């Protein structure tokens, strides 16, 4: 069952084709990696899929809603976690939960229950004082507050130490096992191996798509690092 369907999606800025006729689908409960070099079009594509940017042409449906015609319905059914973790650093942990819980329409009881769950972080701490790994955990928890069907994660482990990265991926697997779909961008090619399937973008187009094993076989590569280098070498953008 596909929860994301993309058909001919494009975004042009004048003559520049940031995203050029991409096509793919993502299944419910899948960890889908969306990879590419800087400037390949990943962020532009993600912004269209999350209802933040209107496509120039083509169609995409996320959780059954048209990203062009129904962006607000899309936004209410997804979670989003960016590399900078999308937190208010001058607020406490509890205040962040209260704010995002209010945005998502949670009841006071639901917000209180989530704050209680996060006591291990220290809910009275100012977010700016938290270690990077705790900020990452809190950001993911806020993205999950309203129990979305899909979580978009834009380089969620950037700058995080390897042990914390592994712990974070264990959490992603747990959510996927519970039926949550995870759409992930990352610069770490070892993390690409953790994905069920991967789309590799080069110059605004999808150059390859498949499981890590399939892509390594197609490219006659020993690792996802090698797959990335072989595909990215053919691109012209910096």
Summarize the structure.
With 238 residues, this protein is of the alpha/beta class. It has nine helices and ten strands. The chain is globular, with a radius of gyration of 18 Å.
Strand order within the widest beta sheet: 6-7-8-3-9-10
- Share in helix: 25-40%
Biggest sheet character? 6 strands, mixed
Number of strands: 10
> What's the rounded overall pLDDT mean?
92
* Helix vs. strand class: alpha/beta
Our count of helices gives 9
The H/E string reads EEEHEEHEHHHEHEHEEHH
Query: Which consecutive residue ranges, at least 5 long each, have pLDDT under 50?
Result: none
Shape: globular
Proportion of strand residues: 25-35%
Oligomer: single chain
Q: Give me the Rg, rounded.
A: 18 Å
Tell me the span between the first and last alpha carbons. 36 Å
List the helices and strands and how they pair.
Elements: E1 2-13, E2 16-27, E3 31-36, H1 42-49, E4 57-62, E5 65-66, H2 71-76, E6 78-81, H3 93-103, H4 108-117, H5 132-143, E7 150-154, H6 162-177, E8 181-185, H7 189-192, E9 197-202, E10 205-210, H8 212-218, H9 224-232
Helix pairs in contact: 3-4
């Amino acid at each position: 069952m596909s929860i994301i369907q993309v058909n001919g999606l494009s975004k042009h800025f004048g003559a520049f084709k940031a995203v050029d006729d991409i096509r793919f689908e993502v299944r419910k409960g899948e960890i889908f990696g969306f990879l590419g070099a800087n400037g390949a079009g990943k962020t532009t594509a993600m912004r269209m899929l999350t209802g933040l940017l209107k496509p120039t042409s083509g169609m995409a449906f996320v959780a059954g809603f048209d990203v062009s015609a129904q962006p607000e319905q899309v936004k209410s059914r997804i979670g989003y976690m960016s590399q900078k973790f999308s937190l208010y650093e001058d607020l406490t942990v509890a205040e962040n939960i209260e704010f995002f819980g209010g945005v998502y329409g949670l009841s006071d009881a639901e917000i209180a229950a989530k704050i209680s769950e996060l006591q291990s972080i220290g809910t009275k701490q100012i977010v700016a004082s938290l270690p990077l790994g705790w900020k990452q955990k809190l950001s993911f928890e806020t993205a999950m507050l309203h129990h979305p069907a899909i979580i978009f994660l834009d380089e969620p482990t950037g700058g995080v130490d390897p042990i914390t990265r592994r712990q974070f991926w264990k959490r992603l697997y747990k959510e996927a096992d519970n039926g949550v779909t995870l759409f992930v961008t990352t610069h770490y090619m070892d993390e690409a191996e953790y994905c069920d399937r991967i789309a590799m973008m080069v110059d605004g187009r999808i150059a390859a798509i498949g499981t890590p094993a399939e892509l390594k076989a197609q490219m006659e590569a020993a690792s996802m690092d090698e797959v990335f280098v072989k595909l990215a070498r053919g691109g012209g953008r910096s």
